[in-house]
Amino acid sequence: MGLFGAGKSRVCAVVAAAGAAEMARQVREALQETPTVELRLDWLRNDGERRKLLGWIKRQKFSGAVLMATCRRVAAGGKFKGGVEAQLYWLILARESGCAWCDVEVETLRELPGQSVRGYPVPRRVLLSVHDFERTPELPREIKVPDHGDVDAMKIAASARTIGDSVRLVEVARRSKNFVAVPMGEIGLPARILALRDRSALAYAPVGEATAPGQVSLREMMHLYRAQELTRKTRVYGVIGEPVGHSLSPLMHNTGFIERGVDAVYLPFLVRELKDFLGAIAALGVRGFSVTLPHKQAILKFLDACEPLAAEIGAVNTVVARGDGSLYGCNTDYVGVLRALEKKMRLRGSRVLIFGAGGSARAAAFALARAGAAVAICARREKMAKELARAVGGEVVPRRALRSEKFEAILNTTPVGMYPRGGISPLSARELNCRIAMDLIYRPMRTEFLKIAARKGIATVSGVEMFLAQGFAQWEMWTGEKAPERAMRRVVLRRLGEEEKPAAARRKRRA
After folding, report:
1. Per the domain annotation, does 412 fall within a domain?
2. N or C: which end of the chain has fewer CB within 10 A?
3. Mean pLDDT computed over 47-72
4. Percent of the chain with pLDDT over 70
5. Do the Cβ atoms of 227 and 196 come closer than 8 Å?
């Protein structure tokens, strides 16, 4: 057992707010999930609020709680504008209030006599922290914290520019004792979640507002990703793309794992360079991954094998990492398009326009053509449109012709209008001359494209139907079990519905 205990006690809840009352509320919420709590005293707006909070903490006498006080100065990336003496003053008061730990930055230590805090009555346990908000520096093979030294544990929080950076940092944790690894930034997020599995003494998660780049909330950390339960035996899956923060795939797949009791976790990987991610597969223990924009076609050249249909489509959205290290590609977007549209229309003999010519467009075009539809392609890049039309025996329709051409259905396969850049449509009302409009974007559930279509009396199909269908197929491919479709569908629709409510309220206020 480590310095902070085991299991959920190694998840450190971060409470940070401008006012003492809100900080107190966050402390109470945090302690319902984990006994380990960091108090960001530097976030409080003034000394009066700091005094209020510490006074409240002292009166509570929390049983079993492990409280860590942090009063990070501006020079070390925090919000406290005072000097070293003022910082130490608040850490001393934190000890008197019941805090067993304090976080002291290396910048503070360098300014102290003998570069040690042991001469001051700060909390008995000291975590020495090093922050680099620009990059991941060169790292030693392991960190050795003396059993009876000036500090009890050490933390390195570094911005990960690549997935390889984050892997280097957590590998130091794997070889060290009493060490906390914190890869920062969206690229470092998966390794941040996996850090406890790799022997990091702590993993941080905010109760309220994020205090560092790439954090996930305390609730998500413990209940969606279950960081406190992950081991080296846990199978790791994920989605790779850029952007990827909008994806609800982690919510959908992790819900499936929880529902079926599968020892697996699904993570969002922001991937700019495929080689960066692929080089980290073994270190992270990745067993499979979803592929989204812009990598669906580029991933093909890195695969060792591919199902014939995916090879013919020329795009892959699902990869299985086999035990021998080889990668096998598939395409479940194909299934998703068919399941979503077959409920609404008879595909055979129908004329369908696909707007776009990327990886998702290719899957849709092949699915529709094989189902007997007459496929038309309209895309900004004429060369890609012609290549796709030729591959499926379809036609190319220029953008200028859309105002006069008629179709049974029009599918938007471009990312135009996707969260968080909603409110725009790839096509205008005059260009939507069809009976059914489908958007492959699922977030938001009702895109501007679909709203325009609905106002014209056109039946609409949300991309959420395709998203769910392709996701169920992926889950079953990876696990070999039947997907708990009802539970996975429920959480996705609930989240999308929650996002629709604020948007509807804003529209009502404007009206």
Report:
1. yes
2. C
3. 96
4. 98
5. yes
Give me the sign of the Cα torsion angle 118, 123, 126, 129. Answer: negative
Query: How much is the pLDDT for 504?
Result: 55
Q: How confident is the model at residue 148 (pLDDT cuts 50, 70, 90)?
A: low
Distance CA 388, CA 375 (A): 10
The two structure tokens encoding residue 358: 């990327």
Residue 150 belongs to some domain of the structure: no
Residues spanned by the domain of 382 = 346-461
Catalytic residues: 296
Question: Do the Cβ atoms of 251 and 491 come closer than 8 Å?
Answer: yes
**What are the start-end ranges of the H helices in 71-205?**
84-97, 106-109, 163-175, 189-194
Give a yes or no: residue 338 inside a domain: no
Compute φ and ψ for 379, nearest 5 degrees: -145, 155
**Taking a C-beta distance cutoff of 8 angstroms, is the pair 447, 441 a contact?**
yes
Tokens of 346: 């008879």
Q: What torsion, rounded to 10 degrees, do the Cα atoms 398, 400, 404, 408 define?
A: 40
Q: Are 426 and 449 in contact (CB under 8 A)?
A: yes
Q: pLDDT tens, 71-115?
A: 999 999 999 999 999 999 999 999 999 999 999 999 999 999 989
Q: Domains in the chain: how many in total?
A: 3
447 in a structural domain: yes
Could you tell me the pLDDT band of residue 64, with boundaries at 50, 70 and 90? Answer: very high
| Mean of pLDDT values over 247-254 | 98
Sheet hosting strand 101-105, strand order edge to edge? 179-184, 153-159, 125-132, 101-105, 66-70, 36-40, 11-15, 203-206
pTM higher than 0.90, yes or no? yes
pLDDT at 53: 98
- Examine residue 294 and say whether the peptide bond preceding it is cis (omega within 30 degrees of 0): yes
Structure confidence at residue 508 (pLDDT): 54
Q: What is the largest CA-CA distance in the chain?
A: 84
Mean pLDDT, the chain, rounded, equals 95
What is the C-alpha separation between 331 and 474, in angstroms, rounded? Answer: 9
Closest CA to 481 of 180, 276, 259, 300: 259
Same structural domain, 354 and 274: no
